[in-house]
């Protein structure tokens, strides 16, 4: 399938002393003659770390226009932490929530009036630059992928137990797509949905970040899978292995299902429950609208009184064990992340707007380090999604 894959380049230099809005109407992309040099030491075990780094920040909640490229100190590595030199970072709906400050209830944790932590990014792939006290199993120069707050930066500090080793054969941009969406899909199906061979599974939001992992994972577990998305994205859902596809515009979504995985979207809770078999399970993931918040609250209140049916709301647990499980499937060819596009990190605002408008299939990957910093790879185990698909609010996180 055709795709738009942008060649990587380093973070551009700012046209202010500290920061500049990225790709806002009055701020063009950084000129190449002022770009950061492309030659970065590949062997981080012998590299001298810089005092500062470039990162994407937002000092307030809002649209993509609040994003800035800024110089800040390289993170200090505490006990049990690993400093990662970021090669690529994944963009999913969770980052959009943090940029917008939605749902508003989440601001209780992340800052009421403005973000407590200005940096963005949740998942990454790169090389170890330094390890903190007590860290075993990782050394400078190791290729890794996993979870880290502030991943949209040249360096990010991550807890060692939220990272996994990355084999040479898997590109950084492929690995960066896996942690957030892949682990969420895995836990939704295996732990909360308790999917079994032969069961019927419906994935709502099958063309989004979580959905494009959930469809092939459900097939891997032996389920019969129906994927729901907009009409323009149903071919992609078929490619992922769905046995049946449904257009969100249709009133009939089939059923009954043993498991319904609702990723984003805004279907009423009552309609979702009617899709379930007598002993079926509904797993709800993500969403930022008032309708979604009512669904989550309603699910929490009704769950104890719904006989035989289970209603679960999911917040994924970030851990190395599930990263290793997904890596095993990826290495064996049983799982292929769907990459919407690979773009330089300076185009994050554009990517955010595409994500918000529903124009993204799968995951957008942001390249931070130039290609010379990444180890050569033998194959690219990933789907590439079409970049011409129209807006699809059903895509989900």
UniProtKB/TrEMBL annotation:
Instruction: Enumerate the Pfam families for this protein.
Output: ADH_N, ADH_zinc_N_2
Source superkingdom: Bacteria
**Annotated Enoyl reductase (ER) domain residues:** 62-366
Q: Name one GO molecular function term.
A: oxidoreductase activity
Designated name of the protein: Alcohol dehydrogenase zinc-binding domain protein
| Region listing for Disordered, in residue ranges | 1-36, 372-397
| Organism expressing this protein natively | Truepera radiovictrix (strain DSM 17093 / CIP 108686 / LMG 22925 / RQ-24)
Q: Which InterPro entries match?
A: ADH-like_N (IPR013154), Chloroplast_QOR (IPR052733), ER (IPR020843), GroES-like_sf (IPR011032), NAD(P)-bd_dom_sf (IPR036291)
Compositional bias annotation for Low complexity: 372-386
